Amino acid sequence: MFTTYKEALDWIHARLRLGIKPGLKRMEWMMDKLGNPETKMKTVHIGGTNGKGSTVTFLRSIIEAGGYTVGTFTSPFIEQFNERISVNGKPISDAEMLQLANIIRPLADELEETELGGPTEFEVITAMAFYYFANLRKVDLVIFEVGLGGRFDSTNIIQPLASIITNIGLDHTNILGSTYEEIAFEKAGIIKLNTPIFTAVRQPGAVKIIEEQAEMKGAPIYRIEQEFSISHHTSLPKGEVFTIITEFETARELEISMIGQHQTENAALAVIAAQFLNQQGEFILTEHAIRTGLIKAYWPGRFEILSERPLVIIDGAHNEEGITALTQELMTRYQNREIQVVFAALTDKKLDEMIAKLDQVSEHITFVSFDFPRAAKAEELVKISQSQNKLAVDDWGPYLLEEIQSLENNSMLVITGSLYFISEVKPFLAKYLKNKTTSL
Questions:
Q1: Where are the alpha helices (DSSP H) in 256-377?
Q2: Is the backbone peptide bond immediately before 76 cis, with ω within 30 degrees of 0?
Q3: Is 275 within 8 Å of 248 (Cβ atoms)?
Q4: Neighbouring C-beta atoms of residue 386, cutoff 10 Å
């Protein structure tokens, strides 16, 4: 029995030692013991390589703007662990997290003694989310973000109102496969019988796999550039404007506050899913709710401007596709700036290609180490870089503060890489920059 929040959190984090164990047997075992809470709520399921969290946020914000209460389950966290289970964007309390841990702990211990083995960290927190929304906090809808892949992800025991696959990239290839088609097959595992699937996947081979799985399940499919499309896109200083044309209706000049052309696709997926839910009578979602929800949607750590003077941006570009989107935005928006990059990553990523793209846009690039089981060492990363101005740093905190203090007017600092790294940097720098502003 845990008596403090810290004890509960330490126990959850300690389960990282079990690594990633794809499969649904442990989840099904725990759900059976808990009375199948996953069947007692309306859900939407969101998978994909990049953009899952942003799409969750856009859809949540739209439905909330319609006057509903929305629960979300996301990963990883950026500012605090509790945000992984949230209601209307507000993380659950420490007391609720402690209560949930005490409910799941006995099951985890019992499961450990079976042939299935103990649940992973992600399975534990997923079980906590299911129990929470079924028994402790009833909401109108819960949006579940896939943790890894889809077919064998612990969230894939729900029967959602709709499924969304944002895009496909060559990430987690050691687990999901080495081709777009193989990864698409794993992602398409979230498609359910007669349940619509909305997707922004563009690779022809990957789209074909998703189409085949949708046909097998009798699932209506809505594909970008086919059943819905984006037009008249314009970038704003702090966001994007675009029009979306769907089978349901055309929504013109929609505005989002998240930066990047890729965010228009994530927003479009949320819009067409909301239009579908509205048409089905599940929720009443007017165009006003859609517009309001989009402009209010905020997701930390995604091309987020922490400070304008000096210009400091953080972005959780944790794989090749994310780095591509980041570097494209930097080249488009900040052609006349001297860009200084700080990068940290996990060892299981395509580091050579990611670093090569960052080398191209940075005047100076610094690689840092951080405390996480799969984190790459700064000394390993710096060897990959071909930059003439590169550096390896182990203690990133003091270094970042020095860099910010020395930034000149035409310079900017971009901190990017692993979301686990960004989750450490964001609160650290936010506190520093707030104090800096207060003292001026």
A1: 261-279, 287-296, 320-333, 351-361
A2: yes
A3: yes
A4: 11
Expressed as residue numbers, the domain containing 380 is 304-439
DSSP 26-85: HHHHHHHHTT-GGGSS-EEEEE-SS-HHHHHHHHHHHHHHTT--EEEE-SS-SS-GGGGE
Give me the number of domains the chain comprises. Answer: 2
Contact 431, 404 (CB under 8 A): no
Q: What is the mean pLDDT of the chain?
A: 95
The full length of the chain comes to 440
Where a domain ends, among 274, 296, 318? 296
Write the burial class of residue 217 (CB in 10 Å: 0-12 exposed, 13-18 middle, 19+ buried).
middle
Within 10 A of 13 (CB to CB), how many other CB atoms are there? Answer: 11
What b-and-e string marks burial along 355-383, b requiring 16 or more CB atoms within 10 Å of the CB?
bbbbbebbebbbbbbbebeebbbbeebbe
Distance CA 370, CA 161 (A): 39
The dihedral sign for the CA sequence 202, 206, 208, 210:
negative
Rounded to whole angstroms, the Cα distance separating 97 from 100 reads 5
In this predicted model, what pLDDT tens digit does every residue of 83-141 receive, in sequence order?
999 999 999 999 999 999 999 999 999 999 999 999 999 999 999 999 999 999 999 99
Q: What is the pTM of this model?
A: 0.94
- Write the CA distances from 367 to 100, 195, 276, 330, integer angstroms: 38, 44, 45, 19
- Which CATH number belongs to the domain containing residue 338 in this structure? 3.90.190.20
As a whole number of angstroms, the distance between CA 387 and CA 348 comes to: 22
Q: Compute CA distances 178 → 112, 190, 254, 329, whole Å.
A: 32, 19, 36, 27
Sheet with 304-308, side-by-side order of all strands = 304-308, 311-315, 411-417, 338-344, 364-368, 390-393
| % the chain with pLDDT above 70 | 99
Residues 153 and 253 in one domain: yes
Reading the block at residue 12, the tokens are 């959850």
Q: What are phi and psi of 78, to 5 degrees?
A: -110, -45
Give the CATH number for residue 218: 3.40.1190.10
